[in-house]
Amino acid sequence: GENVEQHPSTLSVQEGDSAVIKCTYSDSASNYFPWYKQELGKGPQLIIDIRSNVGEKKDQRIAVTLNKTAKHFSLHITETQPEDSAVYFCAASRDTGNQFYFGTGTSLTVIP
Amino acid sequence: ETGVTQTPRHLVMGMTNKKSLKCEQHLGHNAMYWYKQSAKKPLELMFVYNFKEQTENNSVPSRFSPECPNSSHLFLHLHTLQPEDSALYLCASSQGPVGYGYTFGSGTRLTVV
Q1: Is the minimum CB–CB distance between B31 and chain A shorter than 8 Å?
Q2: Can you tell me the distance from the alpha carbon of B91 to that of B77, in angstroms, rounded to the nearest whole number?
Q3: Between the CA of residue A106 and those of A57, A110, B10, B23, B90, what are the distances in Å?
Q4: Which residues of chain B are within 8 Å of residue A102 when distances are taken between CB atoms?
Q5: A32 contacts on B by Cβ (under 8 Å)
Q6: Pairs of residues, one from chain A and one from chain B, whose beta carbons lie less than 8 Å apart
Q7: Using CA atoms, how far apart are residues B89 and B109, in angstroms rounded to an integer?
Q8: Measured between alpha carbons, how far is B101 from B47 in angstroms, rounded to an integer?
Q9: Does pLDDT of B99 surpass 70?
Q10: Model confidence pLDDT, tens digit, residues A46-89
């Protein structure tokens, strides 16, 4: 089955700096890679996703990159703000499947 | 509000109690899921239902019993739980496979005493 590893487990950055979270996956058949943000007391919410037919996707201050050859993908947050503080999860799946394989999460703290 | 509603938000139960978690989705999705979220572990998929039919049961102990009476409602019946079952239980729904509209509820924080 799929194995997703996520690093780092905790990350602190100064407000305005960039944050990068990295994930690797093992199943070359995985082709859909979402990122979820989970704030305290809430369930995970999708913030961006990427499919294997593209290498990069951006949405305002958030971007995701995918390297299929190396089987890794990364989340980039620029100009971080205190409201970006949360736990971020990466996941991998086959988009025809019904199961995500999640990373263990990164707790991001943005220091004002 | 995400369109997936879970009740109760918090639940404390003794090891001999029987309780149920409820999930309701208002998104017109046809697949629903239960996940367990424990500290410092990846989210663990427990059960999957497609069009009310259970299609996945990831080796979950029988003290957890799911029920899906229709595509909008999902229950997780709990009995004789152990303290290690304390966790956040998340419900999710999707329109078919995971690549399409996968949405989580806010979860039920369960504490077994």
Answers
A1: yes
A2: 13
A3: 20, 13, 24, 27, 18
A4: 42-43
A5: 98-99
A6: 62
A7: 6
A8: 18
A9: no
A10: 999 999 888 999 999 999 999 999 999 999 999 999 999 999 99
